Amino acid sequence: MNNVLVFGELTGDHLSSIATELIALGNKLKCEVSVALFGDNVGNAVEEAGSRGANRVYVVRDSLLRDLQEDAVVAAFEKLCKQIVPDIVLVGKTPIGLSIGPRLAFRLDGGFAQDCISLEMDQGRLIAVRPVYGGNALATISFPDNRAHIAVVRAKIYEPQLSDTSRKAEVVTFEPKLDSSVIKTRMVETVKNEPKGVQLEDAEVVVSGGRGLGG
Fold it and tell me: How far apart are CA 40 and CA 62, in angstroms?
């Protein structure tokens, strides 16, 4: 059985919706699913990953991951991948995922596909479908056998599994022992825009209309 490692992006101290979708995708591919969570503020995400279908959770802790600075996250993710050697790495198409996915693929010398809307397994090889030419065509991409398969996946393509609190994941703490030289940029300020009401990406029903809708 192939093993999948999901980049466990967080929303606060909870697992993000895209992370739950990627766990469901890993199970759909009939793979053993692990989730990587970064930093000390993983809160409820460990239990949430297990309840959503993850077999194992790697809690990646290092003093340089305190602010989840992107350079540090990429370096820690690289060290984790080199230790556990996943067959497939799934990353959500989010602002941080769009950066981490290709950077990780380069460091691992892996096969890479961006903006995937469908993933399937064919005789142990990952097959990805992604839009090209501004969405006017779809490209089918197969990954080389001798490299890690790394895919950045669009949100809302796969339905998360229903939460089952009786399901528990094995929890493994991983300490990458990062050197401060891995950080090339400096965090100056973080400004949080607190959303109000139901977020579009989490809404069960979305109603939209054009100018003819009037008032």
Answer: 8
Measured in whole angstroms, how far is the alpha carbon of residue 91 from the centre of its chain? 3
The whole model's pTM is what?
0.90
Cα–Cα distance measured from residue 160 to residue 169, given in angstroms and rounded to the nearest whole number = 16
Q: How many CB atoms lie within 10 A of CB 55?
A: 20
Q: How far apart are CA 14 and CA 23, in angstroms?
A: 14
Closest listed residue to residue 15, CA positions, set 30, 35, 40, 29? 35
Q: Is the dihedral of CA 59, 62, 65, 66 positive or negative?
A: positive
pLDDT digits (tens, 9 = 90+) for 60-113: 999 999 888 999 999 999 999 999 999 999 999 999 999 999 999 999 999 999
Which residues, including other chains, have CB under 8 Å from residue 4's CB and lie 6 or more apart? 25, 26, 29, 31, 32, 33, 34, 86, 87, 88, 89, 90
How does pLDDT run across 172-186, given as a tens digit for each residue? 999 999 999 999 988
User: What sections of the chain are H helices per DSSP?
Assistant: 17-28, 45-51, 70-84, 95-108
